[in-house]
Amino acid sequence: MSTPKRRRFESDDDLAPMSAFSLRRQLLAAKGTVTTAVPSEPSSSASSPAPKSPISASAALPAGRRSARKQASLNAPSPQPSLSPGGREATVIAQESPAKKPVSGASLTTSDNGLPLAPVQQFSTFRPNKQNARKLAGGVLQLRLSTSERFLVLGSFGIRVVSGEVTIAGATLNKTDNIIWAHAAHCHAIPVLRCSEDTKIELHPHPRAIELRRLERLSPMFRSLWNEPSKPGTGAKNELASTFQIIGTAADAPKKAVIQDLVSHPAWNKKLAELVARGGSKAPVVFLCGPKSSGKSTFGRILANRLLTSPSQRAKRPAVAILDLDPGQPEFSPAGTMSLVHVKTPNLGPSFTHAVPETTDASVIRCHATASISPAADPEHYVECAQDLFHHYQQSALRNRPLIINTPGWILGTGLDLLTELISKLAPTDVIYMSEDGPTESVDALRSATRTNFTTLPSQQTEFTSRTAAHLRSMQTMSYFHSIRASTGQVIWDPAPLTSVPPLQVQYAGDISGFLAILSYEFQPPANLLAEAINGSVLALVEIEDGKALRFLPEVDFKAFGDVSVDPETSMDVDDKPAATATGPRVSRSPEGIPFISNPTSQTLDPRYSQTLGLVLLRGIDVAKKSLQLLTPISVHAIEESRKAGRQLVLVHGRFDTPGWAYTEDSYSRTYSETAVDERETEITEEDTDNDDSEAEPEDLGMAGDVAETPWVEVLRGNEKRPVGSRVWRVRRDLGKGGPGGD
């Protein structure tokens, strides 16, 4: 631990007084010689008082002024000076250190003043030149790779293999006319492209990169993620041509960016090879569990990519099923949901780049909303949702394809009980625990619950990250609501603020109604506070497939409801059926007329008879017109199909993250400037910072300009702070924790 106290170094009393600046001059003068005489200090400096003990140059610099690079350069190998006693003249003898081998993957560089700098980390063995790299029309870069060469690409790009074979993030790509698209942001580890033989590939600029990067105008969370941006005014053509950048060394990275390459541990590779090569008629069901940030999602992504592209699997298993049971960090759906996903192509991007996956890449077969980022809110409902999703996997065409199950990083107490219960009920063929450091009680319990193969693998935690788990959840939710799915199945991002997007007008009262009611999980707000509780929040749009879904509400008569017709321009309405004749005694109304299902015992919908179509953002409540203004990427066609089948819709209110990013988009958009972005320093934090209950603000509102008139935004001036008790109050359950206050 650092201390403000100054330490005294013992030395001979007859040593000449010397300042740090004088010592530095001696070191520079001694460069390249064995013995060098240093001129004496001027009389003015010699006569000035100074401490008698000489101090090193590194100690002379204030710790607060030393940057990371300067500190590393001071720690680099350098001649050690020896000061001889005497009068005003001192002799510096440069001691020759034994020759050392260069550090693997790093090289030493020298600054302008001759002092060695920190080792430069090497990421690539491939160096583009006129012989192995050629630019084609449209910004396409053609590369010729030699055997065993590797390199990193930062940004958004497409890969087409002309000849040979390359691997990236576990996927093996062979000669094809298809382009495999990838997004590599430095807030995650960047996948490495490798070749095992002479290979020719093409790197294509990503056609969707511009829209994705323009989200930075709406939130600083999306800034400083990619390769260096184009200068203002260069136009869309140049923006498209610069959607990616080859990273040879750390010096090639954008300023203030920390680059980490995606590395697969040798123990991982051994287990991956075993799972891919395994034969038999039964498809593998791999259950991934372990602590937070241990590499569960990374291992699952690499495994899925290898299964999709392995030569032995392409013919009989052209696709992979993903059962995502982590509502806090899902891969193909927004936070607060669990899903069964049919993956068709390699996954080469962060989760926020496919919050709404393209139909050619992946499709969500079935989804359930926990309405919370943690299974602690309702463990029983969590297990029920997991069982229903697994049941649909067994009953669907996916049953003969590999299934990868990803779970939350909750491995103690009730979290451990949930994992053992899931293993017992889902009966996976392989259980992989992503840590070799225990805890012992968790490993023993999981091993005992496993009937087949149980494996422990070393975890791989990233040392630094520029985005916390709360940031990544907000980015994924923001990306979700800015996604637009075209009729062709392609997904694009709309970089306009949500305030400029026309909402769906959904009638909730009168002669017509667009949904059954509002249902609150875990907490039932009073009727007079319902409108304030749900306004500006994220809700789940749940389709009721059977009346049994409302197991706690037998009074609702679903036959009394008519079909629904949706106007794509303005509204989604129910046919002219009086709502009063369709509601039972348990469906009540708020003073504004909003229908809600009284739920004082915190019951949930039965997942066997319901599914989540997606999330909606309640932008506002028009009391005069008795309508809700909803923003959602759910297509009107999907809602129409549900209503034509005679099914009802329920809006579920729970503990989704507050969409603070949506409240400030318009202000950030108005104050956005390229200069501010370039001068903005990216925050680097230590991993693991993914505390799901963290209340830290995911955005810096100081960059949002004037937000005084923005709803749900509190403006703090100067040194103002929120008063005690102003944060969201949560019920402490102490689930699975011992000691005082525990069970």
UniProtKB/TrEMBL annotation:
Polynucleotide 5'-kinase involved in rRNA processing. It comes from Verticillium alfalfae (strain VaMs.102 / ATCC MYA-4576 / FGSC 10136). One of its GO terms (molecular function) is ATP binding. Residues 39-63 have a biased composition (Low complexity). Residues 684-700 have a biased composition (Acidic residues). It comes from the Eukaryota. GO terms for cellular component: nucleolus. PANTHER family: CLEAVAGE/POLYADENYLATION FACTOR IA SUBUNIT CLP1P, POLYNUCLEOTIDE 5'-HYDROXYL-KINASE NOL9. Pfam families: CLP1_P. Gene3D superfamilies: P-loop containing nucleotide triphosphate hydrolases (3.40.50.300). The lineage of its organism: Eukaryota, Fungi, Dikarya, Ascomycota, Pezizomycotina. Belongs to the Clp1 family. NOL9/GRC3 subfamily. Residues 70-83 have a biased composition (Polar residues). This is Polynucleotide 5'-hydroxyl-kinase GRC3.
